[in-house]
Design goal:
The structure holds two protein chains of two kinds.
Chain A (H helix, E strand, L loop, with lengths): L3 E3 L3 E4 L5 E7 L5 E8 L3 E8 L6 E2 L6 E7 L2 E6 L8 E8 L9 E2 L3 E5 L1
Parallel strand pairs in A: 2-11
Antiparallel strand pairs in A: 1-3, 3-8, 4-5, 4-9, 5-6, 7-8, 9-10, 9-11
Chain B lengths: L3 E2 L4 E5 L4 E7 L6 E7 L5 E8 L4 E4 L2 E6 L4 E6 L8 E9 L2 E4 L3 E6 L1
Parallel strand pairs in B: 2-11
Antiparallel strand pairs in B: 1-3, 3-8, 4-5, 4-9, 6-7, 7-8, 9-10, 9-11
Classes of the chains: A mainly beta, B mainly beta.
């Protein structure tokens, strides 16, 4: 089974702090994604990556950056956390092979910025 | 621009009933469609994936159908149980993007 893990389930940070959210997948998937989920707004794509060291902006990249130094790991970075970045963050991975881009999600990180 | 809509936003049905959840999308040029389940405060669990060339997929009590020409997919749940209570989301993949609906929150009444 595909497993996607995220470094923290719950995180509380102060405004202005630099925040790192880590995501690791164990199925050699080439595609990885970061979303945030907010009530009434649904899932919104922040960044995605198709390969190591590659990154593409999603719909709401402002205030975020990403890093993919290894195929299995995709990190989301909040350079200077703000209260409007309080949200549920979800990581996902997929492969363009026989699984046909089926997305697998991690358990999520509930981030609170105070 | 692709838009994915799920109506209704919330649904309550008595235990044991069969039910259908709806998903519509505006652009039929999709690669596949995926149904997910999300429990409160948790990540998304993949339920069924339908490739664009397929018409339906089945897993246990779940059956998902896809009609690309009309831009619709349905998720049929047979003999509903209280454990089916969750939010169900559909998502379409087109080119290099995946677009999610906002989900239907399902409550099965014991």
């Amino acid at each position: 089974d595909v497993k996607v893990t995220q470094s923290s389930r719950y995180l509380v940070k102060r405004t202005g702090e630099k925040v790192f959210l880590e995501c690791v997948q164990d199925m050699d998937h080439e595609n990885m994604f970061w979303y945030r989920q907010d009530p009434g707004l649904g899932l919104r794509l922040i960044y995605f990556s198709y390969d190591v060291k590659m990154k593409e902006k999603g719909d709401i990249p402002e205030g975020y950056s990403v890093s993919r130094e290894k195929k299995e790991r995709f990190s989301l970075i909040l350079e200077s956390a703000s209260t409007n970045q309080t949200s549920m963050y979800l990581c996902a991975s997929s492969s363009s092979g026989t699984s046909g881009y089926e997305q697998y999600f991690g358990p999520g990180t509930r981030l609170t910025v105070t | 621009k692709q838009e994915v809509t799920q109506i209704p936003a919330a649904l309550s049905v008595p235990e044991g009933e069969n039910l259908v959840l709806n998903c519509s999308f505006t652009d039929s040029a999709i690669y596949n469609l995926q149904w997910f389940r999300q429990d409160p405060g948790k990540g998304l669990t993949s339920l069924l994936l339908i490739q664009s060339s397929q018409r339906e997929q089945t897993s246990g009590r779940l059956n998902a159908s896809l009609d690309k020409s009309s831009g619709r997919s349905t998720l049929y749940i047979a003999a509903s149980q209280p454990g089916d209570s969750a939010t169900y989301l559909c998502a379409v993949v087109e080119d290099d993007k995946i677009i999610f609906g906002k989900g239907t929150r399902l409550h099965i009444l014991p």
